[in-house]
Sequence to fold (432 residues):
Amino acid sequence: MYTQAMDVTPLPAEGPKALPSAEEAALEAAFNERIDAGGFIEAKDWMPEHYRKTLVRQISQHAHSEIVGMLPEGNWVTRAPTLKRKAILLAKIQDEGGHGLYLYSAAETLGVSRDQLLAALHAGRAKYSSIFNYPTLTWADIGVIGWLVDGAAIMNQVPICRCSYAPYARAMIRICREESFHQRQGYDALLTMMQEGTEAQRAMVQDAVDRWWWPSLMMFGPSDVDSPHSAQSMRWGIKRISNDDLRQKFIDATVPQAKVLGVSLPDPELRWNEARGHFDFGVIDWKEFWQVVGGEGPCNRERLAARVKAWEDGAWVRDAALAYAAKPHTTDQVA
Amino acid sequence: MTEQKTEWPLWEVFVRSKAGLDHKHCGSLHAVDGKMAVQMARDVYTRRMEGVSIWVVRSDQIVASDPADKGMLFDPMEDKVYRHPTFFKLPDSVDHM
Fold:
């Protein structure tokens, strides 16, 4: 699951910058040439320091999002309505864990350690996608998350498969292959409730849609005019499509899906615009977005506390495993 | 900080997707030893039966060429075009060689 506005790395404070040496200028020119030609950068290639920092931040925050994203869904594992739904939900959550690990692996190629990345998350210095700061109040939320939240994530993630930093692109390809099951299982669960469910179950689905629709649109991040770092990420081939364009694509794809489900979307201004060839939609409440990003969403504290607790409670497991591995063994010696 | 001493070592993972193909690098993970690394690689990289065989290697055991030396390292290969079959023009009747 993707993070929004997560490619925002603060630029170093303006001040007298040392002029790049002739060698560094040549390296940067070659780097830019490769990016412009649609080429890839690998882990040990020369890269501008800001490119490296931007990617460490973006990839690690993407990874954190996957891991934190396991929590709202974990909430319903013990209360899934059938064994089949429980097994499917477990498989999806395992995937999210796996996706986080692919991304940590990609981030670590840039010369940063896992412990450093986790320390940043636990101290509140690193962010994760703010969509996971909302609570899952009913079983219908689980279906809606699959349909809308994973749907938005897929929209965001497909272009990153062509990111200039190859380890990130390769991780994204692996993730995208698995992500479409996430959206389909959610939609399938909702179809069952809408087509075979009771009046109360249908109302439950509509209520979940009403709560998750706008936060899902916010996943794409602020409008590009309000995202000053988008331009640099585009220039470096990290970002391929603008926030606004991705958001529009998502809305255009989702409105017909809502119709098939038989749910309404909570936006009175949503209507097809023949001239534009797209759906017009209402104004997003960016105040809510910045509040949640800033730590004041419904579940921010709970999510971070859960992660910190898991880390601290697991310390003895990490230490014990290391101690065991350090002991001499008669068979299966460490390679 | 004692972080460095307590962090599990990093391993690179290679998976053979089916008999007849090579093991391909697919990423890395942290584990305390080879046995755990293989187990975890199974969970992280083959949830959909993507592999029939797994290799794990400690990342610090991998010796890699330096990309900065790429030009110099591969230079001798560049001008030996006669290594390619297409360099040799033969009569049509025997060109299937």
Notes: Strands of chain A lie at 271-273, 278-280. DSSP finds 13 helices and two strands in chain A. Chain A has a mean pLDDT of 92.
